[in-house]
Design goal:
The protein is an alpha/beta fold. The protein has a single domain (7-169), classed as Ribonuclease H-like superfamily/Ribonuclease H (Nucleotidyltransferase, domain 5, 2-Layer Sandwich). 38% of the residues lie in helices and 27% in strands. It contains six helices and six strands. The chain has helices at residues 16-19, 66-79, 94-101, 104-110, 124-135, 151-169, and strands spanning 7-9, 26-34, 39-49, 54-64, 86-91, 138-143. It has a six-stranded mixed sheet with strand order 1-4-3-2-5-6. β2 (26-34) and β3 (39-49) form a beta hairpin. α2 (66-79) runs parallel beside α5. It is globular and about 50 Å long. It starts with 6 loop residues before the first strand and ends with a helix.
Length: 170
């Protein structure tokens, strides 16, 4: 069962075609956050299906970097979706978006996970997991400006920060 760990948001249902390109099965918003870098981290995910149903998930991590949380949020979002679907992944992480749009990821693979400066790529294991999930689906990655006007990006950020806050309360 897909999206089984996600909570359905009854307050955010909408008409998909009014807000998103209709050639996708899902539009996914992901965000990662840290309190300190490294420090306690959190991920926030919103998934909108073609019916306009909105699902959310968040999780906290005791010690992480912001980039690790950005990657983890994308990995967990894609893992929750069936193979073969068309997904628009919207992220405010230039780390993720440029890895796809500017060919960083392909170059890292070609160079045996070395950067252009010949240093080992950071977060290699997470990048490999993300690549594995992307390869199971037809995924387009789109950068959106963070903390701006997009209500879904704002909500993903709120979920990630709330996860960190709840971790600190326990």
């Amino acid at each position: 069962m897909y999206l089984q760990t996600f909570k359905k948001r009854l307050d955010l249902n909408l008409k998909f075609s009014d807000h998103f390109p209709t050639d996708y099965d899902y539009v996914v918003y992901t965000d990662g956050a840290c309190s300190g870098n490294p420090g306690p981290g959190g991920i926030g995910i919103l998934i909108i299906n073609k019916e306009g149903e909105v699902y959310e998930n968040s999780k906290a991590y005791e010690n992480a970097t912001n980039n690790q949380m950005e990657l983890e949020s994308a990995i967990q979002a894609l893992k929750s979706l069936p193979s073969g679907v068309r997904v628009l992944l919207r992220t405010d992480s230039e780390y993720i978006s440029k890895a796809f749009s500017q060919g960083w990821l392909l170059n890292w693979i070609k160079n045996n996970w070395r950067s252009s400066s010949r240093k080992a790529v950071k977060n290699k294991e997470l990048w490999q997991q993300l690549l594995g999930e992307v390869q199971k689906r037809d995924v387009s990655v789109e950068w959106i400006k963070g903390h701006d006007k997009d209500m879904f990006n704002k909500e993903a950020d709120r979920l990630a920060r709330l996860a960190i806050k709840n971790l600190n309360i326990k």
